[in-house]
Amino acid sequence: MSPDGEAIGRFARALARDGFEGEIETDSALRAAMSTDNSVYQIFPDIVVAPQSTADVVVLIRVIDRPDFAGLPLTARGGGTGTNGQSLNRGIVIDFRRHMSRLLDVNVAEQWADVEPGMVLDDLNEQLLPHGLFFAPETSTSTRCTIGGMVSTDASGKGSRIYGKTSDNILGIEIAKAEGLMSSLAPAPDWAGPMLAAAEAAAREGRDAFIAKTPRLNRRFTGYDLERACRDDGRFEWWRLFLGAEGTLGPITRIRVKLRRIEPEKRLIVATFATFRDALAAATPLLQDDPTAIEVMDEWVQQIAAEAGILRRLPDPLRPQGDLRCAYVFLEFNGEDCQALDRNLDACRHRLATLSGAGAIHVARDRADIRELWAIRSAGVGLLGKVDGPARPVAFVEDCVVPPQNLPDFLDGFLAVLKDHGLGFGIYGHVDVGCLHIRPALNIDSDADRAKLVSVSDAVFALTRRHGGIFWGEHGKGVRGAYVAEWLGPQAYAALQGVKAAFDPKNRFNPGKLVGPPEQMMDIAGTAFRPFNAAPGDPLAAAFRCNGNAQCLSYAATTPMCPSFKASGDLRHSPKGRADALRAWKTARERGTPPVDERNLMGVLDTCLGCKACASTCPIQVDIPQMRSAFYADFYRRNRRPLADRLTLLGERLSPWLIALTPVIRPIWSKIRPIAERLMNAVDLPDLIAAKMPAENRIAHAELGAYPLASNTVLVWQDWFTALFDEGVQRDTIDGLRALGYHALLVDMIPAGKAARSLGDNLGFDKMATVITEALERGAKTGLPMIGIDPAFVMTLRQEYAKAGYRVPAVMLPQEFLAQEVLQGRAFPRVTDPRTATLLMHCTETTALPSAGMLWRDVFHALGVDLSIPTTGCCGMAGLFGHQKRHQTVSRRLFDLSWKPQLEKEADGLKSSTGYSCRCQTERMTGNVIRHPLGLIAAMFP
């Protein structure tokens, strides 16, 4: 039973009084975000704390050790990527990811590093790259999983046959107790003596029974590892009990990881097979060529990836023809000796040619190509959650490990279980170590399918034991820890209980998981499930389909999704967190359960920049801006809108009138602007109103089709911000197209309703959408090319209009039109001397159209210019977001993360950007004006 609100309040006040410096929060949206992981379960914590340092963790343990808070459980959380509820619990959740994510020390000579538990795996390896070192293993969630989470679940992944599991690569840990910190790399403090003595006695008592019950496999059983803790030489390494213990023995505050040298040579073979059984049978013979990893992907995953267009990124020979389906085998080779590696590679290719069902073979030698091929495999697997219908693949029995030679028979048994239950599935995995990820498709809202989850789990548990394997080979145990007692038997399990009692005598660290009193253990059927599906047609349906895979939690500044999370490190300010909060709010309204505080929900939706990266990059395409619009529409039917929002909507709707009045407004704008900023609670609004362009470069939309236009005419459509404020880009568009032989006609601006759509003003959006759709149809009838200057405007027409049911004629981005012209043989002028330029892309543009930058590169190549397109994330402006006072910290933080470093490189070079927001933000933050790519073209050919 969860503690009452009064007890939580007392705890929060006590924690603050004792000097806890991190956040202490009961925000209902944050608690909703922390209530799920990548599993089908949902447990709401009562309070979330985010420590700044190890000192904070000690304060936390000291406070909960008081009698007043004896019933308050404590659970550590890292990246939240667990597939079985590992970090879900009531009481207190410690968010280590938010602040305790630093690399503390690196010893290159001895090849180790000290890290905080919240550090993300890819972040660590990126910082180690200059030293030529890395930390293994390679997990599929490496962009967001934390080292602490990897240690706690003993995570594994690609290459583990060579590199081992996480526990094989840990040198020591530090833990927090009420008395202070204890490190395995230093003598134990006196106060720890009785605790360690009790743990050792219990461990030694059950060691032999533990060993007798654990198969000798690469993916060994870990978590309370009695075998390794009690060494053969008589020493007791207490810290090894914590590896795989999922926080049930207490929080880890510092981790020393063993590092490996990065092998300079890397190769990847991707081969097709007629069937998955053929691919599986190929694994054992291919081990003779000593690959670092062998991964497989079945026909269902291939089909899902093909339908999503992902397989178009594969080399032509690997793409399935027509409706044919195939399975894939990925073989990676790493090493020091190039010649030895190539000999293995050649032997592998010849062997592949002799194997049953083998088809096309592709060899990648370039590291960028290898990364892309692995990314395709990962993306295909990520789409498993995107299947249509109420049933979706669920990761609840997906990491069983058996000896590789037993894998075919084990698979036959597994598939028979699924057939008996009438379940579909997808399969991928690491066949070199006998680990297949099989995800049966279930509808967790259905009682019948929940019963199947239990029945299948029981059957697969028994099947795994029968084939000499381990039920938990890679992803930890979580609520599946309920099987541990049966697996190990009474003597070994009693030893685990003794270890638990030594480190956690009050049973408060992640209680109910792995080890504990039988009546208190969570299990796969009794743990609360998260809602799986919304009603058909519900505008918040995508929030229910979010499966917690958490690609949106990538640490990398240059990854577009999700900017607000990158700036804050706060889970609630992410697509996953917002989806969780929206789902909880919707469910509470429907079921009459305690509601999510709408003020909390408004807070997390307000920090969304509306970049739409989630709508394009998330495997499930959880479109937060669209769902935010639906929530706002509901909320503002019941509540009055803020003045700033009303002014924004009014400004968009009346923007054609404002533009018509620019001769009047322009001279007095400097006096009006401060008033507008005060009313809108904004800063740094544009300081100039755009002058009207020459009459020969303008046309009223009502005149489209009324008289013939020259064949070299291009119709240019604008958003209201560009038309009202960006005189420079209007001129650059005219002059840049003129330089290439075209006549630009700026169609008198009609607002597309982007602000109305974003703010949930559906009536206003529909009115504007109707008008611009009719105008675009008139423009399309002229047969002339139509382009939009600003990417956000064009993507609104493509994305939002389609979702709102509007079919509009195609409006191209400038580079789409120009690249198409190049392909059709149009000759553009070329510069007389070698030139280079840099283009910083608009994040909405690059996520919605990944080829957008390459199209500009093709255009500039035709002009004789070498165009560099560095990878960047969000600039931090996103329309009005960066102008709003309340968002200044986030806006500046985002600019500093990604754009500032790029703009500081080669400061005197030609810089450009496609987005109005991006150019505005750059000028605001640096004082430098950068131009649209068409402006660079205009300058090159005046």
Strand content: 5-15%
Sheet/helix structural class: alpha/beta
Mean pLDDT: 92
- CATH class type of the largest domain: Alpha Beta
User: How are the strands ordered across the major sheet?
Assistant: 15-12-14-13-17-18-16
Which regions contain 5 or more consecutive residues with pLDDT less than 50?
none
Q: Output the CATH topology of the largest domain.
A: Uridine Diphospho-n-acetylenolpyruvylglucosamine Reductase, domain 3
Task: Assign the CATH architecture of the largest domain.
Answer: 2-Layer Sandwich
How many helices does DSSP assign?
A: 36
Biggest sheet statistics:
7 strands, antiparallel
Distance between the termini: 74 Å
The domain count comes to 5
In total, the number of strands is 25
Outline type: globular
Structure commentary:
- The structure is a single chain.
- This protein has 36 helices and 25 strands.
- With 942 residues, the protein is α/β, with parallel strands linked by helices.
- It folds into five domains: 1-261 and 477-531, 2-Layer Sandwich (Uridine Diphospho-n-acetylenolpyruvylglucosamine Reductase, domain 3), CATH 3.30.465; 268-384, Alpha-Beta Plaits, CATH 3.30.70.2190; 387-474, Alpha-Beta Plaits (2-Layer Sandwich); 541-639, no CATH class; 648-940, no CATH class.
- The protein has a seven-stranded antiparallel sheet with strand order 15-12-14-13-17-18-16, with helices on both faces.
- The termini are far apart.
